[in-house]
Every structure is written in structure tokens, then in C-alpha cells.
């Protein structure tokens, strides 16, 4: 009896000691994090950093959250989560400051290499060769984005991937990507950002899909200056979401209310809630209320402008760190002086980290400054203007790379026009061009994959047609292709509105859900935004989603995540994350205002960072799918809406042939006029060219195949050199994608030098097409328009 009692007592003491140690460790992190916010703000106010946004007030909630974030899990959050990052061991304080200074060295700012504002975090997902790392054993952070609520669709997708990994048995062997779908996506959002449609669409979809998504709302009562009464029904997001609450035998989400200063309370609730979610995949909302914001929203202004005195007083009293301290003292977890010592050490530690980060940031620039000043001072002939440049540069206490470049460029200009100095010109220009290359590497790289997984490095394999190749409908070509694809590539999943059960509105997936299961080929709700989010999450986690937008006109509903998130992911992480998402849609001319759009100008300008494929038929489309599936680059493929029932020959190497991106195809040789086009318009142009042949006007038709990238080998220029006449034809609005093609060929390719007559564009009208065949004829380019313009060109 005695022995048992002693053991019990010492075990209790051990667990108390461990508990106390853990709480003290957390207290240290929250103090350090607060200090980082306070001194980060000062760095901005003194001009060392441009802008600062910090996580003060959210520290305690985030150490609590971090406790349950396990290797394999993902975070999709926003700019308030520094404490979570520190507590999870995913950011050092030095790295935090490096990002604040916009240090472009990825070894210093490992989240974005200086490409993102501070507190926009990320972890590495892929290695330099584009291979997925062992994500199942790492804590993972998808790269943050600044648009409020843009983390939501991605969060849904990251959580959804766990469902796919759990449900699709053939994926279980991919141990580096998932441990049978046990991973949770932790998502954070501010209370005001829950006003966005993204939030609501995501929560509804999560409730329907039943995916392990843990959404934390940091409720500090304001969106910059706008209080909750203007943001949220009943001023409470948990009350407003009540209808989504999971009940017995229903789907839905679990809803919890927590207090942001209540360390013990939050830990207790999260422990059981997160454990349950890992098993059940039931999503949850954690409404974390009574959060403060001691320094206001950001460095852009003070919160005294919009918060009442009473609120400011309340925030002081309910500051989470103060409350945590009081709780520790009240529960005899620490002595006051012990905590004060931690606070002092936190200040020192953060000061050191900040100093180190600044030195790491400034030293390489100072080296450039010194070298430049040395070069300028070494000019054998005295020149006051050069001396002035050197003096100004060396006097600059916080120089930037641009100051060095500016000094060098000005000096080069002076030496070029001075016979005594001209001898030094090459030394300066050499150094200038060396730095230009270096800076381009730092600031302008990784918009697309540059390594072996670049779509532009995929080897071309031509389609092979047997003599007796069958001629079938376009949709049947796709259907046979998708069948072969799903049989051979277990990582591919496809989904969208009406894509699963009926096999898409044009039957590309007809019969395939039955064959490959509804875990891999499935229907979604009408929610383009989060369909894109599902695709993003799956792609980030190493799968190969084909996410469908039913009609091109509805891409606008899903454009924001494609533009802000997908197109920037590789760039904003400097190549550390890739989103190999294929967005499939169908569009161009058919009937009516919303089934005939071809807003390619909008799309290509919004989606730099994705590739945009515009095949003229389904055989070409298949080759593009094959190319993209061998790469890590994200892309949009627009199939021709009016092409599914046109007859095409079926290639026999369906799963193997590739269409190289950025390489136009000459689909008709000619000598008088180069006609540049793509997609559905290609057939109209062909018809016109056939008629023009009869009039002895010989047209060369170039199908560009992809708008992004555009004719990388300048094939169009070769055609123009032959014909000396060029017209760009598409069905976008005037000044849309045709203007883009025009610019590329005239300016980038230097096409203007080979013109005998003025170049033209033929486009749709500025308005959307009226309904019916006449609406199409009088709104989109038609055969007669093209013939008329060709004749004019020949007569000019
Ligand atoms: C789409 C979008 N609209 C506006 C902004 C500008 N903005 C940045 S933060 C912010 C307020 C966000 O408040 P909340 O969601 O409560 O988060 P908090 O900053 O309070 O943590 C606004 C309006 C933005 N970043 N993105």
C-alpha cells in the first residue's frame, strides 16, 4: 500500500513538473512573440522595414492551437499566426525579422525569400527537382496570401485531400504524402474576413464533404476599423453558423466557442476536439472570442482612431498574456520573479534575433556598396560628379540593391560620354550586368517551374494514327483518353458539377465513375470557387487533380483563387511549393450570353503563373493533358464547346503523345497572309481560307495552341517573313487576347519589320453575343468578315 502511494505521488509530481515545464515554455514563447510584434513595429516606424502586421493579442490562442498540430498536418492561414509558427518550431525569430526586412535570400527568409510581406509563412513541399518531400512526417504550411479569406478554398482542399487519401485504397502506399488521411488542415481567419463569400462557401462545402478542417476564427471585433455590427449577423459568427451545426445522423460541422485569453480552457477543448476530428473527419469551427489587438491592425495607423476608450481599457485588462500570467500565479505554477525573468530573457532574445537578421540582410548589400564605391573611387581621372555618386552611396546608412544599381547606371552614363573616363566604362558595365543577373535571380524567378518538372521540358511525342484509325466524336476521344488515364495514373482525380454520375455535360467522363469509383471521379456542388480550392489542396499534397469548371463563362467565379493563389504559389515561395492543378473547362462560341464567352484577355492577364491551353480539337486537348501531367505547372485547358460532336481520328498512342506548350502549329500553308488564331475560331478561319484560295489569296493559318506560353520559338515571325501580311483572329472582345498576340508578335518578335500592309485584328464585338445563330453570326467573327478583311489587305 505504502509503495503504491509513493509511486502515485511521484508520478503525480512528475506529471505536474512536466505540465509546469510545458506551460512555462509556452509562456516564454508568447512573451517572445509579443516582443517581436513590439519591436517589429518599431523597425517599420524607424524606416528599416516597409510595413508590419503582427500577431499581438493572439499569442495564447496560438500556442494552444500549436500543441495539437502534428507532423503531417497542414495550415492554411493568414498574417496573424506568428506565435503559432514559433510554437510549432516552424519559424525562428531571426527568420521572422528577415522577412520583415524583405531579405531576398531564401536561407534567411525561408518562407518567401523576401517576396511576401511579413508574417506570410510557408514551408517547403517540393525539392529542387520538383519531387514531393516527406510531407506525412513534416508540419506543413501552405503559403499565405494577403487577400482576406483567400486561405479558405485552399484549406478546404488540403482537408479534402485527407479524405481522398483515406478513401482511395491504391493511395495508401504513398506513405510520404499521407498516413491514410489522418491529417488535419488547421485554418485561421479573422472575424471580419468571415464576411467574405469564400468563408461561407467553404464552411458549407466542408459540412457536406465531411473533411478534417479545423477553422479558427480569431475574433478581435474589428476588420481594420469596421466593427462586427457591420460584418456579422448577430455579431457572432458561431451564432450565424448555427444551421450548419452537426446533429445526430446529419452531416455538418462542430462548433466550439473559446476565449482567447483562457489558456487552460482552450487546451482542454482542443485536445478532445482535434482528437475526434482525426478519427471522424468531421469539420469544426473554433470561434475564439475576446481577442485583443494591442497595437491595432498594422503599422499603417493607430487603433485609437476608431476604438472607444472603454474598449481600449477592456483590451488592456483582458490581454491574453496578462491573463495567462495571472492564471499561472493563481495556480501556483510559477513565482512572479520567475516569470519576470522569462520576460526579461524574451526581450534580450528577440533583440539578438532582430540584430542578427538585420546584419544578414544588410551585409550582402553593403558588400555591393563597398565594391561599387571602390570601383568609382578607383577611376584614374578625378571627376566631381562620379565622386558625388560614390560619396552619396557610401553615406547611405540603409542602402538597398536599387541604390547600388542606380549609382552604377548613373556612373556608366557619365563615363560613356566622357573621353577621359570611357576606359573605365567596361569595368562598371561588367559589374552592373553581373548584379543585374543576380538581382533577376532574386526577384524575377520561379513564376513557373524551372527545373526538370517544367512543362516546357516535356519531350514531344507525336500522336500516331493507324491506317484504319477510327473516326469518332470529339467527346469519345476524351472519354477513351480519360479511361486510359485513370487506369494508369492512380494519383489522378477528377471532379466538378455533373462530372461524376452523368460523366460531365458532354460525356467526356461517361461511364468512368462506375469503373473507377466515386472517390476518384465525382460530382460537386455548384461552387466554382471551392472546386478550385479542392483542386489546389489536392495538388499541393502531391495528387493530380483535374478540376472542372462546367463552362468557361463561369470561370470568373473561380478566378480569384487561380489568380491570387495558384498563379503565385511557385513564385511566392521561390519554388518551394508547386500546384500541379489542371483546370478543365469548355468554352468559346455556342449560344447565348453565358454559353459563348471567350474572355481570354481577362484570363491570360489574371493567370500569369499558369499555362493557358486553347486546343482547336479534342485530339490536341489530350496531348496537352499528357504534357501537363508530366509536369508540376498548373494550367487551364479550354476545350471547344462546339467541338464535342465533331469527328476526329483516334490516335493509337492516346496516353503517350504530348503537345509541346508554346509551339504553334501551321495547319494550312500559304504565301499571302498569315492568319493567327486558336480554339473554335480556327475552324471559321479554315473555312474562310478555303474560300480565299478560290480567289487566289493564299492564307497560312497558324494555330497558336497555347496563349500562355505564347510562341516561344517565334514560329509566327517565320510565317510573317514569308507573307508580309498578318491578321490575328479570335472571339474575345476587341483589345483582348488578339491584342496580346499582336503585341507579342509585333514587339517581342519584331514582326513590324516584315509588314507590307498594316496588321489587323478580327475579334468579337465588345458586347456579349445575342442568343441564337444570328446572335452568334453578328457578334463573333464570321467567315465573311475574314474574307472581307483579307481582300482589303491584298488591295492595300
Ligand atoms: C479581399 C481583401 N479585401 C480587403 C483587404 C484589406 N484588409 C486587410 S486586413 C483587413 C481586415 C481583416 O480583418 P479580420 O479578418 O478581422 O482580421 P484581423 O486583421 O482583425 O486579424 C482588410 C480589410 C484584403 N487584404 N483583402
Molecules bound to protein: thiamine diphosphate
Helix/strand/pairing class, anyone?
A: alpha/beta
Radius of gyration over C-alpha positions, nearest whole angstrom: 30 Å
Count of alpha and pi helical runs: 25
Spatial arrangement of strands, main beta sheet: 11-10-12-13-15-14-20
Cα(first) to Cα(last) distance is: 111 Å
Largest sheet descriptor: 7 strands, mixed
Roughly what is the average pLDDT, rounded to an integer? Answer: 96
Percent in strands? 5-15%
Low-confidence stretches: none
Overall geometry? globular
> Which bin fits the share of residues in helices?
40-55%
Number of strands: 22
Provide structural commentary.
There is one protein chain. The protein is an alpha/beta fold and 796 residues long. The chain has 25 helices and 22 strands. A 7-stranded mixed sheet has the order 11-10-12-13-15-14-20, with helices on both faces. α23 (737-748) links the parallel β21 and β22 (760-762). The model has no long low-confidence stretch (mean pLDDT 96). It binds thiamine diphosphate.
Amino acid at each position: 500500500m505504502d509503495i503504491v502511494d509513493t509511486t502515485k505521488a511521484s508520478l503525480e509530481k512528475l506529471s505536474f513538473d512536466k505540465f509546469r515545464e510545458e506551460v512555462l515554455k509556452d509562456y516564454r514563447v508568447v512573451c517572445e512573440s509579443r516582443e517581436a510584434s513590439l519591436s517589429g513595429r518599431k523597425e517599420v516606424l524607424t524606416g528599416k522595414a516597409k510595413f508590419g502586421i503582427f500577431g499581438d493579442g493572439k499569442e495564447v490562442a496560438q500556442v494552444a492551437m500549436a500543441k495539437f498540430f502534428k507532423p503531417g498536418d497542414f495550415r492554411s492561414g493568414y498574417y496573424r499566426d506568428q506565435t503559432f509558427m514559433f510554437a510549432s518550431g516552424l519559424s525562428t525569430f531571426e527568420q521572422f525579422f528577415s522577412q520583415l526586412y524583405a531579405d531576398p535570400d531564401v536561407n534567411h527568409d525561408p518562407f518567401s525569400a523576401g517576396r511576401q510581406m511579413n508574417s506570410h509563412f510557408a514551408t517547403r513541399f517540393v525539392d529542387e527537382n520538383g519531387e514531393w518531400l516527406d510531407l506525412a512526417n513534416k508540419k506543413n504550411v501552405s503559403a499565405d496570401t494577403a487577400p482576406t479569406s483567400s486561405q479558405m478554398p485552399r484549406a478546404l482542399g488540403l482537408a479534402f485531400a485527407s479524405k481522398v487519401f483515406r478513401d482511395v485504397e491504391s493511395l495508401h502506399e504513398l506513405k510520404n504524402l499521407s498516413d491514410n488521411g489522418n491529417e488535419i488542415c488547421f485554418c485561421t481567419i479573422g472575424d471580419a474576413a468571415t464576411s467574405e463569400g469564400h468563408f461561407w462557401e467553404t464552411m458549407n462545402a466542408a459540412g457536406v464533404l465531411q473533411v478534417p478542417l479545423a477553422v479558427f476564427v480569431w475574433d478581435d471585433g474589428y476588420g481594420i476599423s469596421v466593427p462586427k455590427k457591420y460584418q456579422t449577423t448577430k455579431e457572432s459568427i458561431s451564432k450565424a453558423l448555427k444551421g450548419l451545426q452537426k446533429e445526430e445522423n446529419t452531416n455538418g460541422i462542430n462548433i466550439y466557442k473559446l476565449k482567447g485569453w483562457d489558456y487552460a480552457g482552450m487546451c482542454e477543448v482542443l485536445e478532445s476536439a482535434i482528437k475526434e476530428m482525426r478519427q471522424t473527419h468531421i469539420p469544426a469551427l473554433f470561434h475564439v472570442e475576446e481577442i485583443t489587438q494591442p497595437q491595432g491592425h498594422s503599422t499603417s495607423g493607430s487603433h485609437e482612431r476608431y476604438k472607444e476608450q472603454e474598449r481600449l481599457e477592456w483590451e488592456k485588462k483582458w490581454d491574453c498574456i496578462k491573463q495567462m500570467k495571472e492564471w499561472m500565479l493563481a495556480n501556483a505554477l510559477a513565482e512572479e520573479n520567475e516569470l519576470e525573468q522569462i520576460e526579461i530573457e524574451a526581450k534580450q532574445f528577440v533583440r539578438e534575433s532582430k540584430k542578427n537578421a538585420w546584419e544578414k540582410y544588410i551585409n550582402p548589400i553593403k558588400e555591393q556598396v563597398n565594391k561599387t564605391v571602390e570601383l568609382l573611387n578607383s577611376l584614374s581621372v578625378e571627376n566631381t560628379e562620379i565622386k558625388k555618386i560614390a560619396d552619396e552611396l557610401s553615406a547611405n546608412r540603409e542602402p538597398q540593391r536599387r541604390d547600388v544599381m542606380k549609382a552604377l547606371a548613373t556612373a556608366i552614363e557619365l563615363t560613356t560620354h566622357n573621353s577621359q573616363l570611357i576606359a573605365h566604362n567596361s569595368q562598371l558595365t561588367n559589374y552592373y550586368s553581373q548584379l543585374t543577373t543576380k538581382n533577376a535571380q532574386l526577384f524575377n524567378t520561379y513564376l513557373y517551374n524551372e527545373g526538370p518538372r517544367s512543362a516546357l521540358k516535356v519531350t514531344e511525342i507525336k500522336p500516331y494514327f493507324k491506317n484504319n484509325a477510327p473516326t469518332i466524336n470529339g467527346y469519345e476521344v476524351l472519354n477513351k483518353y480519360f479511361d486510359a488515364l485513370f487506369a494508369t495514373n492512380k494519383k489522378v482525380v477528377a471532379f466538378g458539377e455533373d462530372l461524376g454520375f452523368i460523366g460531365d455535360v458532354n460525356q467526356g467522363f461517361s461511364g468512368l465513375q462506375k469503373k473507377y469509383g466515386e472517390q476518384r471521379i465525382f460530382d460537386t456542388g455548384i461552387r466554382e470557387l471551392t472546386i478550385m480550392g479542392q483542386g489546389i489542396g489536392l495538388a499541393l499534397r502531391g495528387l493530380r487533380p483535374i478540376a472542372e469548371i462546367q463552362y468557361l463563362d463561369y470561370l470568373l467565379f473561380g478566378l480569384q483563387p487561380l489568380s491570387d493563389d495558384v498563379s503565385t504559389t511557385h513564385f511566392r515561395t521561390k519554388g518551394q511549393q508547386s500546384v500541379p492543378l489542371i483546370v478543365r473547362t469548355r468554352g468559346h462560341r455556342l449560344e447565348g450570353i453565358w454559353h459563348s464567352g471567350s474572355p481570354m484577355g481577362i484570363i491570360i492577364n489574371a493567370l500569369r503563373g499558369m499555362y493557358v491551353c486553347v486546343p482547336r480539337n479534342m485530339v490536341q486537348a489530350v496531348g496537352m493533358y499528357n504534357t501537363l501531367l508530366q509536369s508540376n505547372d498548373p494550367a487551364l485547358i479550354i476545350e471547344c464547346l462546339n467541338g464535342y460532336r465533331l469527328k476526329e481520328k483516334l490516335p493509337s498512342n492516346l496516353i503517350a503523345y504530348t503537345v509541346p506548350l508554346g509551339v504553334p502549329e501551321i495547319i494550312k500553308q500559304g504565301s499571302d497572309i498569315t492568319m493567327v488564331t486558336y480554339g473554335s475560331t480556327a475552324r471559321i478561319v479554315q473555312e474562310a481560307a478555303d474560300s480565299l484560295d478560290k480567289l487566289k489569296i493564299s492564307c497560312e493559318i497558324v494555330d497558336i495552341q497555347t496563349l500562355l506560353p505564347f510562341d516561344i520559338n517565334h514560329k509566327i515571325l517565320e510565317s510573317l517573313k514569308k507573307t508580309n501580311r498578318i491578321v490575328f483572329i479570335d472571339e474575345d472582345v476587341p483589345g483582348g487576347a488578339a491584342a496580346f498576340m499582336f503585341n507579342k508578335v509585333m514587339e517581342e518578335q519584331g514582326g513590324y519589320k516584315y509588314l507590307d500592309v498594316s496588321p489587323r485584328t478580327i475579334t468579337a464585338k465588345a458586347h456579349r453575343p445575342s442568343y441564337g445563330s444570328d446572335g452568334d453570326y453578328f457578334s463573333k467573327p464570321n467567315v465573311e468578315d475574314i474574307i472581307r478583311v483579307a481582300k482589303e489587305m491584298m488591295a492595300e
